[in-house]
User: What shape does this take?
Amino acid sequence: MNKDRLNDRTPHIFIVGLGIMNLKHITVEAMDVIKRSGHILFVDSGFGVESFFNSHCEKVTNLASCYKKGRSRREAYNEMASLVLDSALKKAPVCFAVYGHPNIFVYPTYLIKSLAPFFDLNVKILPGISAFDTIITDLGIDPGFHGFQMYDSTDVLIRKRPLLNDVPCLLWQPEVTGIVEYSVRNDLMQNLIKLQGHLLRFYPKDHEISLIRSSSFPLIDPVRTNFQISQFAETVFKTKWAGSIYIPPVKVRDIKDFEFAESMLRKSSNKNEELDLASIISQHSGKAHFLKDFLSAAECDEILKCFDKIEAKPGKVNTDQLKPEVRKSPVRFLRNGNFPELHWLFQKVNKIAYEFNKAYLNFPFKGLQSNSFQLTEYSSGGFYSWHQDFSERKKRSISISIQLEPPESYSGGSLELKTHNGIIKAPKDRGTLIVFTSNTDHRVTPVSKGIRRSLVGWYLFES
Ligand SMILES: C[S@@+](CC[C@H](N)C(=O)[O-])C[C@H]1O[C@@H](n2cnc3c(N)ncnc32)[C@H](O)[C@@H]1O
Assistant: This one.
């Protein structure tokens, strides 16, 4: 045993990442190591890499020679690791330099790190720019928004890894899915078909994904081929270059802790600033959006079932008075919690109000008034004349309304809004959600035939 080595924490082996772009990504830290190593052993097929190392070090070994057609890649990695360890035992320090980041899909790094202690060798790993870094740059995505999942393609296949289809996903090394030997493709197509079958358990078959290759040379642009997930096997098989598969999310995950999100929004507003409610909301009068198919027919039916279970009351105007000349429509109040089977509805609608507030008002709001929706019924002769939902007493910021009935089941009963584009009629399609700022003038025209039922909600300002 070599005592000096045990006490000496100076690394005997530096493992450095060279980045993706042909010597342009080398860090200053890696450069220092390259200059002072007695031997550089490297894996990077980039143009001019070998002569670059030769100009900085007397002894350079290109480990590409460890790969041989038909030889298992694992054997090649074992040989690379033993060449590095041998060299360090002879004369340290040495440098093992690899393409990209040395800890990202580089098995020899793992072998060297695990075996070095048996030889009293210290290892230091220096990070490099990985294809992960360049891919998120090429795609322009930030994992901070929806998270990120990434896997080796073979690993997904053999572990049948579950994939979250609301989180961006990167699959590495698809071109060697299930392949053990270097440069052999005999079983590749059947392995890719299996992997495709697995992906289709989580994504719709027409979901568009990409095979992406970041640029590894300054004059060459990144390459991105888009195709449907049902063409995954065929596309990867016929592509001759090594790249990664990017699967964008199918949907955005709902906010589950709405109260917490809302309290954060409150904190993020400037507390020292006087919140001038009147001026903020006056700037946003007349903002409206329609979301068709927000609810399915089955979901509308589920809500309609509750009508008969809740006592009807005469509809009042926003001063809480009964004014039959302004409004004729009985109402029922659907309180969150009274119908646990409809809890999803509150979450779904609250999320829209939250997003709408974030987009337009960015004003702290307390949430749904009385934690209840109003179920409104307009039978023949029912109407609600022009009015606003906002008043000094009822500081409502956002109003929502959902069309619950098929449009052919009633005549009249149009919801009209005074927007910046003039008076517009909200679509009557069943399941459409209408969201608008509460100081927007709106009305429901008289129903002449049938019954119009809708779900209404108001979100309050924090005041
Ligand atoms: C053995 S791994 C090496 C990864 C490397 N250490 C890194 O940090 O990016 C090779 C795999 O990385 C991915 N890859 C490497 N270079 C890439 C590039 N320029 N663009 C996209 N993916 C790349 C591909 O999935 C390829 O099969």
Summary: Residues 3-129 form a domain with the Cobalt-precorrin-4 Transmethylase; domain 1 fold (CATH 3.40.1010.10). The chain is about 30% helix and 25% strand. The chain has three domains: 3-129, 132-247, 258-461.
